[in-house]
Amino acid sequence: MVLTGGEPCLAEGLGDYIKAIKGLGYQVKLDTNGSRPEVVADLLERQLVDYVALDLKTDPKNYPLEIGPEKATDGVWETIKVLKRLGKPHEYRTTVVSPFVNEDTIVAIAQAAKGPWPLYLQPFRKERVLNKDFLEKYPEQPGEEEIRAFRNLAGGYLPTIIRNDKENG
After folding, report:
1. In what order do the strands lie in the sheet with 119-123?
2. CB contact set of 113 (below 8 Å; sequence gap of 6+)
3. What is the pTM of this model?
4. Which long-range contacts (CB under 8 A, 24 or more apart) does 132-140 make?
5. What are phi and psi of 120, to 5 degrees?
6. How many helices (H) and strands (E) does the chain have?
7. Phi, psi (deg, nearest 5) at residue 42
8. How many whole angstroms separate alpha carbon 36 and alpha carbon 30?
9. Do the beta carbons of residue 53 and residue 37 sit within 8 Å?
10. Under a CB-based contact definition with an 8 Å cutoff, are residues 119 and 91 in contact?
11. Per residue in 77-135, pLDDT tens?
């Protein structure tokens, strides 16, 4: 079973819910934005989550400027540290969307996540944008060639894979 967003780590009683799922014999994957590292650590330490997918929206040090509240930066960094420290199976995911992802941010993301666990680069899908003003402000988005170049930049730090639209759908 996959627990995904909004952000599942915000849910009250998440541990009890997962415990019930595990009691039915299911494995559990957690998709998280990393804003609640203490929840991720608790779930992993209690053996309630089998796999974690951490979304890295941009260079973690730029979250307050580009993505959200200042606390998000510390949470993302700490979640990366938790995943590395506990060594549980996990992956990192970045949706390649301008202006949040460029060569510099890809390198920073790869350096932060450096290790044996993969980084998946996902193409941005314009047809799924809820705020159409975003596309007017940022009409040019990275294409396949640029995403391949990003994969090559990140590949020196961790396994890097491009997810195509079929896998991303």
Report:
1. 2-3, 29-32, 51-55, 90-96, 119-123, 160-162
2. 56, 80, 92, 119, 157, 158
3. 0.89
4. 138/97, 138/98, 138/99, 140/98
5. -100, 125
6. 8, 6
7. -60, -45
8. 12
9. no
10. yes
11. 899 999 999 999 999 999 999 988 999 999 999 999 999 999 999 999 888 788 888 88
The domain 2-168 having CATH identifier 3.40.50.1370: the answer here is no
The answer to whether 94 and 120 are in contact (CB under 8 A) is yes
> What is the rounded average pLDDT of the residues 72-81?
83
pLDDT class of 167 with cuts at 50, 70, 90 = very low
Per the DSSP assignment, residues forming a β-bridge with 94 are 121
The DSSP secondary-structure symbol of 142 reads -
Query: Predicted confidence band at 29 (pLDDT cuts at 50, 70, 90)?
Result: very high
End-to-end Cα, the chain, rounded Å? 17
Tell whether the model's pLDDT for residue 7 goes beyond 80. yes
Calpha distance 141→126 (Å, rounded): 9
Count of Cβ atoms closer than 10 Å to residue 16 Cβ: 10
CA 25 – CA 132 distance, rounded (Å): 42
Other beta carbons less than 10 A from residue 147's beta carbon: 20
Length of the chain in residues, anyone?
Answer: 169
